[in-house]
Amino acid sequence: MEDFSTFYFTENSSSKRLVYKKGSGAAVILMHELPGMIPECVDLARRLAENFTVYMPLLFGEPDKPLSVPKMLQYTARICISQEFYCFAQNKSSPITDWLKALCRQAKQECGGQGVGVIGMCLTGGFVLSLMADDSVIASVASQPSLPFGITSAHKAALGVSPAELEVAQARANNGVPILALRFSEDKTSPPDKFTTLRKEFGEETEVIEDNAELCWKRNAALETIEINSQPNNPYNLPQSSHAVLTLGYSSESGHPTNRVYQRVVEFLQSQFATN
């Protein structure tokens, strides 16, 4: 990762974390998923850095290390008992989001403009709702949000954000800061229940952009969702276990649904930066 610059960021004398930075232009905070900052996540940061200044904090684990099941299990165990990640709380925001909000403000100060974009994935997918409570955030992408882990039907449907921050997110989403949410249709780690709750809280998508054998893409003023078809016999033979839309599940093949979704993420961020 020699093509990234690095710095340590501390918020109010709390945890000091290493942040990787690359690119130019408007700031985008990229929060890695549960396997850690795997090479596929680093590659995503590089792609995004072609259009934006990417800030990628190392939340846990080692940077640029391949996916390892033993390591993932180790990280999961640590996170589940961590005081910074609330893995099972249905209506509480993870404390680490306070540190991330401070990083958002720092990135806005460094890059200028009206605000920053945030991308959360898997473990961090729902964090974007908490971050929207900070007015430095003007573009939010939630990819395969998974917290709280789905141990009960209520956990599967919950968004892992406090009622107060959810209320702010709703208000901001209805006033020019919409949410873009992504998942594979058969993903059990990011169950459909969470998208049902997003629609309950942010409104049903009234505009159908595309609904076919490849993907279902809908939106309203506050919420935009794209669900990639991973059912058996789908056109691209995507496995039903597909989970990570922008990293492990991503394909650079032209026309591939994950490539199209990535392009939409870039367009969405650019549009938000242009209109705010």
UniProtKB/TrEMBL annotation:
Entry-linked Pfam families: DLH (PF01738)
Single Gene Ontology MF annotation: hydrolase activity
Location of the Dienelactone hydrolase domain: 23-203
Protein name: Dienelactone hydrolase domain-containing protein
Organism placement in taxonomy: Bacteria, Bacillati, Cyanobacteriota, Cyanophyceae, Pleurocapsales
